[in-house]
Write a structure and sequence with these properties.
Blueprint: H1 7-18, E1 25-28, E2 34-37, H2 48-56, E3 60-62, H3 64-69, E4 76-83, E5 86-94, H4 97-140, H5 147-157, E6 164-172, H6 182-196, E7 201-204, E8 209-215, H7 223-244, E9 249-253, E10 257-258, H8 260-280, E11 288-290, H9 295-300, H10 307-322, H11 326-338, H12 343-350, H13 354-368, H14 375-388
Parallel strand pairs: 9-11
Antiparallel strand pairs: 1-2, 1-5, 3-4, 4-5, 6-8, 6-9, 6-10, 7-8
Helix pairs in contact: 1-4, 4-8, 10-11, 10-14, 11-12, 11-13, 12-13
Protein name: Transcriptional regulator
Domain PucR C-terminal helix-turn-helix: 329-385
InterPro entries: CdaR-like_regulators, CdaR_GGDEF, Diacid_rec, PucR_C-HTH_dom, PucR_C-HTH_sf
């Protein structure tokens, strides 16, 4: 509110007053101008009674005699409006003081309640905007602040950097929305989440993506508890967004980490999880993914392209380049690993005889030079498949 009453709030006060009072009501700003009134002709005019209230910060009554002496004045009572001990305006009831006096305090209390509620709402919105900007700078790595300044900023806006948090990325296809409404829809979803789940921090980071952060249980001695807590966060946010938005979206959970740098790292892992999970999805029903289901692939995608990473890919490239049935053998490898390298379940999943599976595994060994019965070769092929799945 910043020490002033705007026409929106003034009109709201007048509307509420007319529901219970049969008198004309005027709301004046801190300069004494009528901002809203039951008499539209008075809006924008200067109110002499309000000027007297603003000068004394006290209630002022104007009877018939005073109204006749003071130009452009009508009988009534005028009361100051305070918000957190700041004089922000005046409210007046037109009529003989003896008739309207008893309603003055009631009207004053109602008006101040509306003003204070609006002030609180604006403060909460400012706090949310500060939190959004803090998170946005953290995940985009754009903050020029020192670690000390970051810690002070976090403390000032109520973000505890000691908490362990997981990032979630929610990605929408802008083609689902009406032209020109994409950002409005994303902001609506973000605002709904912030309003209904104040423990979450949400911010829009692009034309398609929302970032949402939630705290999870940190259990160094029992990492399974942290993962379980993060999965619950994913489930809760998915249901919340599904209840707000009927359009399709992709959702991914990042690794749970503490600290300012942890915000960026968790966000990065969430983005990679969404990309990898989407690439691996076998049906449209798979639209939400957890880092903890794809952690190896997410970790490997951070490897830079060097001769070492090229060596991981070489065996499968040889398989596809030298074998006529390379794609079939590659599919066999994927099912082999999905079934825990167990021959019988793998053969059943592929719908082939065990001897056929043995033959295919032999062909894979000949083409790649890698023996899946050796741990080093087993791991190398598995990593190569993970990188190929990116």
């Amino acid at each position: 509110m910043n020490g002033r009453i705007d026409s929106r709030l003034a009109a709201q006060i007048v509307e509420q007053a007319t529901k219970v009072l049969p008198f004309d009501v005027n709301v004046m700003d801190a300069k004494g101008s009528v901002v809203a009134s039951t008499d539209p002709s008075r809006v924008g005019s200067f109110h002499r009674g309000a000027q007297m209230v603003l000068g004394s910060a006290c209630e002022v009554e104007i009877d018939q005699d005073a109204a006749e002496r003071i130009p452009n004045t009508r009988p009534g009572v005028n009361l100051p409006l305070f918000v957190r001990e700041r004089l922000v305006g005046v409210i007046g009831l037109t009529g003989m003081p003896a008739e309207v006096r008893q309603f003055g305090k009631l009207l004053q209390s109602m008006a101040q309640l509306i003003l204070e509620r609006d002030e609180l709402t604006l403060e909460l919105q400012r706090e949310e905007h500060h939190k959004e900007e803090f998170v946005r700078q953290a995940i985009l790595g754009s903050s020029p602040l020192s670690s000390v300044e970051v810690a002070a900023w976090a403390a000032r806006i109520g973000i505890d950097l000691e908490l362990t948090r997981s990032a979630l990325i929610c990605r929408f296809d802008p083609g689902q929305f009406e032209p020109g409404t994409t950002l409005t829809e994303l902001d609506r979803i973000r605002d709904s989440i912030s309003r209904e789940c104040p423990h979450l921090i949400g911010t829009r980071v692009s034309m398609t993506d929302l970032a949402i952060f939630g705290s999870v249980v940190a259990a160094p001695s029992g990492p399974g508890r942290t993962e379980e807590s993060a999965r619950r966060l994913l489930a809760d946010v998915r249901l919340k967004i599904r209840g707000i938005c009927k359009t399709s979206f992709g959702l991914a959970l990042g690794i749970a980490l503490p600290g300012y740098e942890g915000l960026r790292q968790s966000w990065t892992s969430a983005v990679e999880t969404l990309r990898i999970g989407t690439a691996r999805a076998r049906s449209p029903d798979e639209y939400y993914f957890s880092y903890y289901d794809h952690r190896l692939a997410v970790l490997l995608c951070g490897l830079t392209e060097t001769w070492r990473t090229a060596e991981f890919s070489r065996p499968l490239e040889l398989l596809l380049a030298t074998e006529r049935d390379g794609p079939l053998l590659l599919h066999t490898l994927k099912i082999w690993f999905e079934q825990g390298a167990q021959p019988k379940p793998t053969a059943e999943a592929l719908g082939i005889h065990r001897n056929t599976l043995d033959y295919r595994l032999k062909k894979i060994k000949e083409a790649t030079g890698l023996d899946l019965s050796r741990v080093d070769d087993f791991v190398m092929v598995y990593i190569a498949l993970q990188r190929m799945g990116e």
